[in-house]
Here is the input.
Amino acid sequence: MQAHKRITAAINAANKDGRPALVPFITAGYPEPDTFIDTLKSVAAVGDVVELGIPFSDPMADGMTIQRSSFEALKKGVSLKWIFDQLDSVSDEIDTPLVMMSYLNPLLAFGYDALAERALAAGVCGFIVPDLPYEESEEIRAALEVRDLGLIQLVTPATPKERLETLCDASRGFVYAVTITGITGGGAGLPADLADYLDNVTSVSSLPVCAGFGIRAPEDVAAVGRHAAGAIVGSALVEVLERGEDPQAFLRALVGE
Amino acid sequence: MSALLQADEASALLEATINGELPDASGRFGPFGGRYVPETLVPAFERLEQGVQEHLHDAAFQEEFQRELREWVGRPTALTFAPRLSESWGAKVWLKREDLAHTGAHKINNAIGQAILAKRLGAQRVIAETGAGQHGVASAAACARVGLPCSVYMGAVDMERQAPNVDRMRRLGAEVVAVETGDQTLRAAIDEALRTWVTDPEGIYYLLGSAVGAHPYPYLVRELQSVIGKEARQQMIEQSGGLPDVAFACVGGGSNAIGLFHPLLADDIELIGVEAGGTGDGLGQNAATLATGTPGVLQGSYTIILQDDDGQVQETHSISAGLDYSGVGPEHALLQATGRVKYISAGDDEALEALEELCAAEGILTALETSHAFAAARNYAKENPGAKILIGNSGRGDKDMPTLTKYPARTRSHAGA
Here is the structure.
């Protein structure tokens, strides 16, 4: 199966079971580089797709939690190359499709062709690049497509109708619907008109739609799950790791297990 | 996205920039520039770009902008001959006095222009970032002038070394928000301002202070700052009988330099941008982006940045907060790649020495940022006796007193003699 289609298939399989797909996000190498693989295996056992955050010095779309985890991981020497080396050592042990979330500059510095080659070998199926609008994405998209890797597009409540269609068409794997007009980790709750927004994105997209930003509690996952194919949980999970608690127990509680 | 230009490509791009054809429709200065922003901000940038197209060269906007420059900012600023400095250097030295502009630096030209634009675009409030505090003060003043609330994001490190400016901003009615993440200087302040803009892209106008960031900011800021070079060019002809041989400006993000250089690009004038050499050549010891950096994407723009092999942006050091930035405006990256402008650096110590020399020789306390341009110009004069030198005196140094008091005055060759 093409790498990006593995993402779609995993989400569809969860929905077929009668539940929304769960997409946990962790910052790679946080809180400790030594426990990265254990943490990854632990969340991959519950998550349908796992989103791996690549630490960056200027995470301008992220709130305090992910900023903090990102700076901490960098301080401990985590780099994209190190992450690929780690993933290589366990790629046949993890079946869950992996998606990398990275700002553009570390990918640019790695080189797009080398990136695609190593990603495919490491079990990575797609990329989310939060500071790369569609208009600037041609070069990396082409390099990823050669290896059937997906570039996952984000859409937001501020996205105009025509643009929404363009972004949904361009996306691979799933469409990432940002729930709020803001940065990650928002504690202000989900917006009142969330259902209409997610219904609208779902009606435009031929791919499953996963909602992210500000999803912290079982009721958030349930609310999102009624109008989207999946829920992405980032900052709340990183906070669990920060406190040294069990990520798997947290994720199981989120989906009501 | 190769940064290497072939010779014929370079000359075509230089011609295009002189003719005002850059940035192109996608916001590029050759390979540099563009718009790398979160999806939530894409519609906001499109609205801004449309607003700039509609208003910037519109007669009503220009009439208001020019009137404010004249009657509120105090333009044109003087061109001053520096006789004692000239004698000491063996050159003819002229200063374009942006330190005489309202609020004490060139930053006000851009701030009032964008504040007028924000008002016309129907913004409810303005946010701005600041490094040295000069753009923050200028934004606070400009927002008061047009009647818009203003919040200024400033790194905690910068708040300490530019304390007088923090108080000035607050007295001018702005809220000053301390940024305690990242490197706690200008770069972190821009990141935080962008995060804030994302929360209300329709109500907020982001008044960016330098010729950096995503399209259309590098273009917008250049257009608003070009008044420096246009005035200086005409004043040189009127007061000195002709154009200078060489022009110097300091470069952090590069707004005063692009404002001085852009109107001089077509002339036979050597143009030299001076970055902060800090305390040495090592990564993290300076902010000499163009001299030692490599191409990458930072804060919305593909430009030259200071980064490690993994693409992580590096912290910088400079004695001057206003030059302490890991990136540089994309148009400067192009001007370097075409060879039209030469970019060099001056260190902390040289800048301090130059500041003292100018104080004693001409009675002008210049900003620490600007002092870097003087340091480089002095070295140039030694090698080019008799040269006619124009220096962009981008701001005054009153704001630097907390830093300067840590360095006892050394040169007293004129005073007390």
